């Protein structure tokens, strides 16, 4: 009886600590636990080693630090002090920065769609469009999460990073257009995922400053956490001798100078290595560590620890298609604020502004940037430094009115189409090969078409009248958008006659890709890697579908949620 009383006491005590945090926490960006990996000792020991300081890794590390020693390894640098990350007006600059020190690392899928992965503390929350919205109650139930802890974990993140956006002329017109076209009811401002039209949250505050997952480290116990920046993990270490199952017990990482460091887990059955490296990084690192399809690993001379053919499978990216609408009336610089959630599986969103990168020293023209890939004027294969410089110079000579306008876009729910990820080489800093198979499933294509039909009705609605030129008909707008070399796919003439062809020709990413370490296939329902001890994967690579209209809130929630569950287990047993 005494044992159970003490156990209940520890569990209750853990929840109090986890929900309210410690008064010793430090405000961002003045973290005493933030270090360059070059300062790391050759050998170190921790209770938890988390690989990836991204949207899931930061809240996970902050939570676990309250009764454990935690090492958080991030391959990129700090987001603080970088205006291309912080300022809403500079959106696009980070994505178009192709330098080795960029917070964004470009990759091109085998489908021919240009994409990006984060390389910075805070992960994708540092380079995305900032929309904050929760998963639906149906999604939470399907995954099997505890709804009470889910809500508490969302609220924990929202106190630091979520805000109500200011509604100005373009976003208001799109909202009213959605309602007039029947995307109802109107749900007002809410983080909840509800059929109809709503104003969602944003991680930009009212001064246009971005708040990222790195800010959630404010919740950390500084004495329990060590964060190493520019720490590239090359391999997870396993013990196999005399064991029925491999046991993760450490990692090898290299600093910015290429120097090797090893971190081991302290002795203790509760201590773990946790992968939170994202939907490309987590399956890639599992494979590089010997966990993956046997023949594929052997082909790259990787020593096989566990033949797991499902690592790298189930890769999916929600296809996004947009229509650009030049506007005779001024529009604000805005990212995603309003969303129309349709019952048939298409989400309608909007963005606007003369120049998303207007705050930078060099005009990059945001989503029109010759560097970024979205609605660019220079085909991807022709993007030499000389060609980019020439294109930017030509764009700077244009009348700014050309860039005054906005996008209305649709994103396909799910999606049902899936692909795979493979190693290209054994360098963890290089991108793996990934195929998403956009629109392979006919229902994804149908959802795109339905979404475009809604967009067409919104464009023609009365609230949008001040923001469109009468002489630019819908076919002209479709063909104008389709003429931009936005991907490496072949384009067809006059796609306005077939919305199906428009979907295929103009498919882009909205950076919501997921899969590769899916729950029930690679990890169990506690996110433990199946067949391996002391190793979990906690990030979007475990998802079968993208949650809500934007996954970042749910990825933050997941980091916190699993941190609470793991730490409660630790304190209660």
TrEMBL record:
<feature type="disulfide bond">
    <location>
        <begin position="448"/>
        <end position="503"/>
    </location>
</feature>
<feature type="binding site">
    <location>
        <position position="120"/>
    </location>
    <ligand>
        <name>FAD</name>
    </ligand>
</feature>
<keyword id="KW-0274">FAD</keyword>
<feature type="signal peptide">
    <location>
        <begin position="1"/>
        <end position="25"/>
    </location>
</feature>
<dbReference type="Pfam" id="PF00732">
    <property type="entry name" value="GMC_oxred_N"/>
</dbReference>
<feature type="binding site">
    <location>
        <position position="540"/>
    </location>
    <ligand>
        <name>FAD</name>
    </ligand>
</feature>
<feature type="binding site">
    <location>
        <begin position="511"/>
        <end position="512"/>
    </location>
    <ligand>
        <name>FAD</name>
    </ligand>
</feature>
<keyword id="KW-0285">Flavoprotein</keyword>
<dbReference type="InterPro" id="IPR036188">
    <property type="entry name" value="FAD/NAD-bd_sf"/>
</dbReference>
<dbReference type="InterPro" id="IPR012132">
    <property type="entry name" value="GMC_OxRdtase"/>
</dbReference>
<dbReference type="InterPro" id="IPR051871">
    <property type="entry name" value="GMC_Oxidoreductase-Related"/>
</dbReference>
<dbReference type="InterPro" id="IPR000172">
    <property type="entry name" value="GMC_OxRdtase_N"/>
</dbReference>
<comment type="similarity">
    <text>Belongs to the GMC oxidoreductase family.</text>
</comment>
<dbReference type="InterPro" id="IPR007867">
    <property type="entry name" value="GMC_OxRtase_C"/>
</dbReference>
<keyword id="KW-0732">Signal</keyword>
<dbReference type="Pfam" id="PF05199">
    <property type="entry name" value="GMC_oxred_C"/>
</dbReference>
<feature type="binding site">
    <location>
        <begin position="551"/>
        <end position="552"/>
    </location>
    <ligand>
        <name>FAD</name>
    </ligand>
</feature>
<feature type="domain" description="Glucose-methanol-choline oxidoreductase N-terminal">
    <location>
        <begin position="278"/>
        <end position="292"/>
    </location>
</feature>
<keyword id="KW-1015">Disulfide bond</keyword>
<protein>
    <submittedName>
        <fullName>Protein HOTHEAD-like</fullName>
    </submittedName>
</protein>
<feature type="binding site">
    <location>
        <position position="233"/>
    </location>
    <ligand>
        <name>FAD</name>
    </ligand>
</feature>
